[in-house]
Amino acid sequence: MPYYYVDEMTREITGPFEPMLVPGIGVQIPGNAIELPQPLPAVESGYAWVWRDGQAAQLLDLRERLVFRKDNGLSFYWTEFGPLPDHLTVTPRPNEYYIWKDDGWVLDADAERAGQAAQADIERDNRLRTVVIRVAPLQYAYELGEAASEQLTALQAWKRYALNLARIDLQPGYPAIIEWPIAPEQSVVSPAI
């Protein structure tokens, strides 16, 4: 009769092995071993023999495989034998705009559009901060009546750029496709003294 080892934590069956014969004592069988009436057949690819409920069962082996939650797409490594619970899949979520539906990841177009719009707003606001930094000295020079013609031209260009930034949501491909306006020359022209 064949002997097999049973892992104490995972209950995975490995072997068979020949028990040790100790002179004067006899055959020694480890505490984590089982004796089966016949050898186990070769395990199928992707499966493992596991000791469950007092018998050997061939179970799906997805251990050390990256699995994904269907509710939020978060991933982790699976550590158990058998099929995955219904709330998990081995199929990765393509991106944060996909939801699990009808046994697969499906694009949520509304969520994607909202996410792209939010990213566009962040980028637009970052660009508008640059406008404020560039326009302030030019505006002060204009208000004090000390602006040179180059400064007035630069001030108008920056204001036009700010207006174009504010209108990106009117572009036909917005928010998936945005043609960002080109910023004017970044240098602030100092008045001639």
TrEMBL record:
Query: Which source organism?
Result: Pseudomonas jessenii
Q: What is this protein called?
A: Tail fiber assembly protein
Q: Which domain of life is it from?
A: Bacteria
Note the InterPro entries from the entry: Phage_T4_Gp38_tail_assem
